[in-house]
């Protein structure tokens, strides 16, 4: 059975501010001394309880995969909580802009926390990231802030579902351009049927002054060539990803499980795997060093 842990940057179970540091929740398994872990990052408008339930649906779907895949899930899987919820229960121009700053702050706190991890016998720990919606902003901000020279942490993969991140921000010259180069493999799961990203996201980003009605990464998987794999799942709505059993094989393949994921009719392999992560250099190619 896969072990499940909880780490949090929340000060309250619902609402509240970003905590000064990420903590391991009471009663949770520890992330220290592990060879491989998975970190799940929820999106906007999720209380801790709601996020935990969504995460658990995803974990349950992974565990229902046929053997031997379900017997090889990296363990533990950690549910990461951050305060991206307000009283307004939809991604909208009214409240979405107020959640961008907590997403950035939570990403920085998560970078600090993951930077303290060490694997068995002082060796490295390998981390897989799975994020949804605005949780992808948290993940990319974390990677941006992470010390890439840290020899104790290797980011094996990132799976970005319904990413509420402006395409210009991850395009050449954008604030988050190439933040994921320290991750060995990246995939984007996107959908043209996602009305939240189509209608509300551009308004929210414009209100937040992060662009003028920008396109979200989670609609078409743009920019072209940025990711190792682009998976258009044209029938998915914004809330389809965590609970949908059909998502599990796509995630499992990036968790390096022995499974052949179904081939989406619109699946587009975009680029070769990122080069091996170097721990000998102090800077990353194409990464911004100012304004962090």
Summarize the structure.
The chain is an alpha/beta fold.
What does this entry look like structurally?
It is a single chain. The protein is an alpha/beta fold. The protein has a single domain (4-269), classed as Alpha/Beta hydrolase fold, catalytic domain (Rossmann fold, 3-Layer(aba) Sandwich), CATH 3.40.50.1820. The protein contains 7 helices and 9 strands, in the order βββαβαβαβαβααβαβ. Strands 2-1-4-3-5-6-7-8-9 form a 9-stranded mixed sheet, with helices on both faces. β3 (36-41), α1 (48-63) and β4 form a beta-alpha-beta unit. α2 (96-114) packs across α3. The longest helix has 19 residues, at 96-114.
Q: How many helices does DSSP assign?
A: 7
The overall pLDDT average reads 88
CATH architectural label: 3-Layer(aba) Sandwich
Largest sheet: 9 strands, mixed
CATH topology: Rossmann fold
Number of domains as seen in the coordinates: 1
Strand order of the largest sheet: 2-1-4-3-5-6-7-8-9
Query: Which regions have little confidence, pLDDT < 50, spanning 5+ residues?
Result: 268-292
Task: Choose one word for the global shape.
Answer: globular
Which key phrases capture this entry?
292 residues, alpha/beta, Rossmann fold, nine-stranded mixed sheet, 25% helix, 19% strand, disordered C terminus
Give me the secondary-structure topology:
Elements: E1 4-10, E2 18-24, E3 36-41, H1 48-63, E4 77-81, H2 96-114, E5 125-132, H3 135-145, E6 153-161, H4 167-170, E7 183-190, H5 195-207, H6 217-220, E8 229-232, H7 248-254, E9 268-269
Parallel strand pairs: 1-4, 3-4, 3-5, 5-6, 6-7, 7-8
Antiparallel strand pairs: 1-2, 8-9
Helix pairs in contact: 2-3
């Amino acid at each position: 059975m896969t072990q499940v842990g909880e780490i949090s940057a929340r000060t309250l179970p619902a609402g509240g501010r970003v905590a000064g540091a990420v903590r391991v929740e009471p009663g949770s398994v520890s992330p220290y001394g592990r060879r491989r872990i998975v970190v799940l990052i929820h999106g906007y408008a999720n209380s801790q309880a709601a996020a935990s339930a969504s995460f658990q649906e995803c974990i349950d779907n992974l565990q229902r995969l046929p053997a031997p895949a379900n017997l090889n899930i990296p363990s533990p899987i950690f549910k990461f909580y951050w305060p991206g919820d307000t009283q307004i229960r939809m991604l909208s121009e009214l409240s979405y802009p107020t959640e961008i700053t907590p997403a950035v702050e939570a990403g920085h706190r998560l970078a600090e926390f993951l930077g303290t991890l060490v694997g068995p016998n002082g060796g490295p720990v390998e981390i897989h990231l799975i994020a949804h919606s605005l949780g992808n902003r948290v993940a990319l901000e974390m990677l941006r802030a992470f010390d890439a020279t840290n020899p104790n942490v290797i980011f094996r993969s990132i799976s970005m579902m319904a990413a509420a991140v402006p395409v210009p921000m991850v395009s050449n010259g954008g604030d988050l351009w190439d933040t994921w180069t320290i991750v060995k493999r990246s995939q984007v799961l996107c959908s043209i049927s996602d009305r939240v990203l189509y209608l509300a996201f551009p308004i929210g980003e414009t209100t937040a002054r992060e662009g003028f009605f920008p396109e979200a990464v989670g609609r078409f998987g743009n920019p072209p060539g940025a990711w190792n794999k682009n998976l258009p799942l044209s029938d998915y709505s914004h809330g389809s990803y965590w609970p949908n059993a059909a998502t599990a094989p796509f995630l499992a393949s990036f968790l390096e499980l022995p499974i052949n994921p179904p081939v989406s009719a619109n699946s587009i392999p975009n680029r070769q795997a990122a080069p091996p992560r170097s721990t000998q250099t102090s800077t990353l190619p194409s990464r911004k060093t100012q304004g962090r």
